[in-house]
Amino acid sequence: MKFETVLYEVKENICRITMNRPDKRNALNYQLLADIDAAFKAAEDDPQVRVVILAAAGPSFCAGYDMKDSPYLVLPETMETWTTTYALRTLRKIGERYQMIMYFSKPVVAEVKGYCIAAGCYLQMCCDVAVAADNAILGHPAGRGGGVTSMPLWVTLLGIRKAKEMIMMSKLINGKEAERIGLVNMSVPEEKLEEETWKVAKNLAEVPPDGMIIMKEALNTHMRIQGIDAEFVYHRELNALGRVGRGRPPGAVPGAGINAARERIKQQEKRA
Fold it and tell me: What's the pTM value of the predicted model, to 2 decimals?
C-alpha cells in the first residue's frame, strides 16, 4: 500500500505507519494528515494487523503543524481572518483526529525521536504506549504565545501542576525526563529505539484480538466516564474562539517552530 507522505508496512501482525517528510521534520501538512487518516483506516480494516507503530523517517518524530500548509495555521485563500464558524469546524476536525488515534480499536505505539513538539507531542500522547529516545525533545514551545492548547491530555497524563509547568512555561524536556513525569512510557538509548519499540509491539500483538479490543475499550471508557470527551470539546472550542477574539493573522503563532524550540532549550540550560 502506497501513500504520498507515509510509508506503510505490515509484518508479523504489526503495522508500521511512518511519517515521511524528513526534510520538514515531518511537520503536519494537509497531505500528511490525509495520509495518516488513510493509513490508520487501512490498518483498522486489515484483520492481520493487531498493533500499529506510529514512527517517523529522518531525525525527528514530528515538529508540529506545518506553518505554511496546514489547517491548524493556514486559512483558505478566500478568507482573510478566522471566523467563529470556520475556527470551530476546523478545530473539531483536528480534535477528532487526535481521538481517532486514542480510540483506535487496536493498540498504537509511538516511536519517538528527535523533535517531538507541539502537535507532534500531541500525536504521541494519543497513542496507547510511547517509547522515546533518551535524547528526544518533547514539549509545547508555542505556549509562550498564550492561549488555550487544544490537547487536554496534558492534565490527564501529568496531573494539573506538572501540566501547568509544561504548558505555561513552554518547557521542553528530553526523553528521560518525559519518562520520569509520565509523558512517555519509557525512554531508551537512541540506537535501541526501533528494537525496543518492536519488542513492545510484539508483546501487545501476542494478546488475542478479542481480548485486546475489550481491554482497551474498557480503559478508554473509564476515561470517558471521567469526562475526557467533554474536555476535548472544551479545549478545542476555547482554542478556536481564541483565534477569532485575538485577531491573530493566519500562521502567526508566537513561539512556534524549531528555531523557537532551540531557543527555549538554550534558555532552560542557562537557568539550570
Answer: 0.92
